[in-house]
Amino acid sequence: MTRTKALAYQFSPWIAAIGLFVVWELTCRLFRIPEFTLPAPSATLHALIAYWPGIWPNARHTLLTTLAGFLLATGFGLVLGAVVGASPLLYRALNPILIGFNSVPKVAVVPVLVIWFGIGTIPAVITAFLVAFFPIMVNVATGIVTMEPELADVLRSLGASKFDILRKVGIPRSMPYFFASLKVAITLAFVGSVVSETVASNEGIGYLMLSASSSFRVPLVFAGLLVIAAMGIAMYWAAAVVEARLTRWATHRHTEHLTYGG
Fold first, then answer.
1. Which CATH architecture group holds 39-246?
2. CB neighbours of 230 closer than 8 A, spacing ≥ 6?
3. pLDDT tens, 220-255?
4. Which of 29, 71, 117, 203 has the lowest tally of Cβ within 10 angstroms?
């Protein structure tokens, strides 16, 4: 591939993002859309800079809350996924319950969490955990369940116990599934924490956006959305980097063919 195409491939996300903001800005200006309906990116950026001293503490709170819920979901999802995936009986018995629980809108669970734990950080952490837990657990269990029966039979014939098969083959085989689910779960964790903050919290980006919308400071609302999007992209990128390093043997790298002059 030529150098020009390689550079275009590398910078395509930035080009797409800039193009989106340009179209957004031109649309707001050409159609004279009121700021209280849809602020232009320039007005959103101005609000982001003007209110940054107030945005930063709330963004930090949301980030820490999300990370706490995400880490809990990662630990519990990996353990329970391994246990469920290793036992066909548990997989069949618990799968409908877990699916039903995941189908319950988490915004409906937040009031119950408030009754139990009060308004504040704990409901947001638990909501982030509940939202992020399911995809991790299901993907780990799926990775283990789909292990080839012939491989397990060969290992058992060599004297490997069920735990040895799970530890040396099942869990490593589920790692691509696990890391793929992390990229989904981290973005869902942000959704859970922000939803909880809008319902029952006195700090965080969700609370900031709710307060701004109540006083019709719509550019500040969109500034909060941009901050959430930026944090979500950063965490997704971090998970993708870890996935590429730890599961290189099972991951198809789209950039392997990007060699100059090829």
1. Orthogonal Bundle (1.10)
2. none
3. 999 999 999 999 999 999 888 888 887 765 555 444
4. 29
